[in-house]
Every structure is written in structure tokens, then in C-alpha cells.
Design goal:
This protein is mainly alpha-helical. It has 3 helices and 2 strands. A two-stranded antiparallel ribbon has the order 1-2. The chain is rod-shaped and about 185 Å long. The N and C termini lie far apart (about 190 Å).
Length: about 130
């Protein structure tokens, strides 16, 4: 009987050995561990690059917002200047038109006070007769 028990124990040990061998065969080899290290290193590098690019993107977006605000501010300023310019032009045009309209004083000032002549140089008003 001792002999069969030893055989049973040996069979059991053999089964365990075969199972462990299969488990080890499924385990990755040293090449896979090296490849895993390379992937981890690459992942760290790409993560750093992503953080840098993300911060640059945030910087450019904030700069873009500042530029948009500045453009809006300058557009409003330009609109105000245009309105003031047009108001000034209208004011000057109105003043020029006002200056062009003759008043009674200017009409009187334009009339000559001396004798008027028509055609052949004969005066229109009576001149005192000269005695000869």
C-alpha cells in the first residue's frame, strides 16, 4: 500500500507541476516587461507634452479673449469718433449755409451809393444842370 500512496503523491505532484508550467507559459516573458517599460516611458512623455499643449491652448484662448475685447473697445471708440466728426461737419455746414443767406443789412451794404449808369453811360438819377 505504501507504494500506491507514493504513486498517488507523485501523480498529484506531477499534475501540480504541469499546472504551474501552463501558468508560467501564459505569463509574459522578459521581452514583454521591457516593452511595458518602454510604453510607460512613452506614456509619461506624451502626458508631459499634453500638459504643455493644454497650457499653451489656455494661454492663447485668454489672449484671444483679450484681443476680442480690445477690438470691441476700439470699434466703439471709432464709432464715437465718427459720430462726433459727422456732428461737427453738420454744424459747420449749417453755419456755412447760415452765412450764405443774405440778411437785410448785407443787401443794403451791397447797394452802391453813387450814381447808376445804364447802357450808354447815361445816369439814371437826375444830375444838377450845369450852366455853361
Amino acid at each position: 500500500m505504501a507504494h500506491t500512496e507514493q504513486d498517488g503523491g507523485a501523480l498529484e505532484k506531477e499534475k501540480l507541476y504541469v499546472e504551474l508550467k501552463h501558468i508560467l507559459a501564459r505569463q509574459p516573458g522578459p521581452e514583454a516587461a521591457e516593452q511595458l517599460q518602454i510604453y510607460r516611458h512613452t506614456l509619461r512623455e506624451k502626458t508631459k507634452q499634453l500638459k504643455v499643449l493644454s497650457s499653451e491652448l489656455n494661454m492663447y484662448e485668454s489672449q484671444s479673449q483679450e484681443y476680442k475685447y480690445e477690438i470691441e473697445k476700439l470699434s466703439n471708440e471709432l464709432m464715437d469718433v465718427k459720430k462726433k466728426y459727422l456732428a461737427q461737419k453738420r454744424k459747420e455746414l449749417a453755419q456755412k449755409d447760415k452765412d450764405k443767406i443774405p440778411t437785410d443789412n448785407t443787401i443794403l451794404a451791397a447797394k452802391p451809393s453813387g450814381p447808376r449808369f445804364v447802357g450808354g453811360g447815361f445816369p439814371l438819377t437826375k444830375m444838377p444842370k450845369l450852366k455853361s
